[in-house]
Amino acid sequence: xxxxxxxxxxxxxxVQVAVVMERQARPNQWEAWxxxxxxxxxxEPAFGSAPxxxxxxxxxxxxxxxxxxxxxxxxxxxxYHLNLASGxxxxxxxxxxxxxxxxxxxxxTVSVSYTExxxxxxxxxxxxxVPLPADIVAWLQGFTEEHYRPEPKQRRRPQSFLAPGDRQ
Length: 168
Fold this sequence. Notes:
single chain; alpha+beta; four-stranded antiparallel β-sheet; about 20% helix; about 40% strand; DUF3305; DUF3305 domain-containing protein
């Protein structure tokens, strides 16, 4: 293959979103700051590309973080199915805080995969969630129906048919 040939890029279904987080000063005597995921909203050109403060009254500050792309991958279809099957589908948002300045936190990434969120939690990440709007649920449902194939159930041999050393 010549070096000037390019592989075709595969366009994945995706949606552009922004994350809204809230910071509360001195929520109790043990915490200096508390952070909360408020919403994930469709991206708008007016949001720009830099985070910006929406409101700040000295106690509560709401900040908008634009520029997140949520892509759907066929190999994550089971995670999408689990999210949809939960009865209350959600956005999953990983966020971090600054070790040197505990008054600062920011979202890192956004997903709709239950299994991806589980991997983040296993890695000790902070993961919060907020409900998915109906149009995103429909979009995710369409993709999941097209790509999710449950693994066939395998019949387990009754324990009585196994040698005693092979039994659990």
